[in-house]
Amino acid sequence: MLLPSLVGVALLPVAHAAYAAWVRRRFPLAGDRIELGGSRLHFTRTGEGPAVVLVHGANGTWQDFSSELICDLARDHTVLALDRPGHGWSEAPAGPLGLAENAAALTALLRARGLERVTLVGHSYGAAVALRAALDSPELVSHVVAVAPCTTIDPRNSRYASAPLVGEPAGRVLFQFIALSLLPFGLPLRAQAWHPERPPRGWSASRAFAYVPSQLHASARNFRTLAADMAWLERSLPSLAARLTVLAGEMDQVTPPARHVDWLSPALPTARVEVLPRVGHWLLRLRPEIVAAAVRRHSGAQSPGANGR
């Protein structure tokens, strides 16, 4: 019995490599990759007009943003959607991979493409990345739309931040053995994220990439510095020069407004905060028209319906 068990364990990295290869065949490269700081960042670009950049959340991909939202915005905007470092088709650089490093990759992409005064749309952890980018490079960002934002440490995300080993270099090896076994543990988390709706059936790109070992490790590295990152954000947000629009779901169980949103208005009285009833963390996909309207409010583009298109 011991030998078959050892063989089974030894084959786990092979199974995970096969899974990662299947995911990349099933969801092939959709845009361009640019080398920034020694690693390649994947992004898509469509449309013409004022620039909007879409920044996905924890352990997601650019396809967290629905084609409905991207096509809507692309009618009168240049829309870039990126895979954050280590996610989807983007490579992860060596070293820390917290908010500062994610924001640096984002702003490096903007500079490489000659974009400035852009609107950043960030979801969940991606909203924190967008805010960090706007604070670090105010000349590049005119407006942040923070959707279901992660803005502070709480009991849920502190558990991820304190998980042993997974965010360390050894975690990359560990995930080669355990990534797919985490699927049952991910089901209740997925249900919370879609609450009060039922999670959609099937395997989207974001769901499939979420169990690729290298992406799990990159996500764990994001959370490794989360406590310090959120403390920095809380201290720094009052100096934000960009406009801020916050869209939150009243029934969000992942980044509940009482913890992640209510403190924003006193800290930044000029922010526009909307808490939407009867929707949770995935309002990004469930209410794309509200996200698009928030972008157009300050982007200078007209709603397509206003000019006859």
Average pLDDT figure: 93
Distance between the termini: 68 Å
Q: Provide the gyration radius in Å.
A: 19 Å
Order of helices and strands: HEEEHEHEHEHHHHHHEHHEHH
User: How many beta strands in the DSSP annotation?
Assistant: 8
H/I helix tally:
14
Helix content: 40-55%
Features:
single chain, 309 residues, alpha/beta, Rossmann fold, globular
Q: Can you describe this structure in just a few lines?
A:
By secondary structure, the protein is α/β, with parallel strands linked by helices. Helix content is 45%, strand content 16%.
Fold and architecture overview:
By secondary structure, this protein is α/β, with parallel strands linked by helices. The protein has a single domain (2-298), classed as Alpha/Beta hydrolase fold, catalytic domain (Rossmann fold, 3-Layer(aba) Sandwich), CATH 3.40.50.1820. 45% of the residues lie in helices and 16% in strands. The protein has helices spanning 2-26, 67-74, 99-112, 125-136, 155-161, 169-178, 183-194, 205-209, 213-224, 226-236, 257-260, 264-267, 283-286, 288-299; strands at residues 32-36, 39-46, 51-55, 78-82, 118-123, 141-147, 243-249, 272-276. An 8-stranded mixed beta sheet has the order 1-2-4-3-5-6-7-8, sandwiched between helices. Helix 2 packs parallel to helix 14 (288-299). The model has no long low-confidence stretch (mean pLDDT 93).
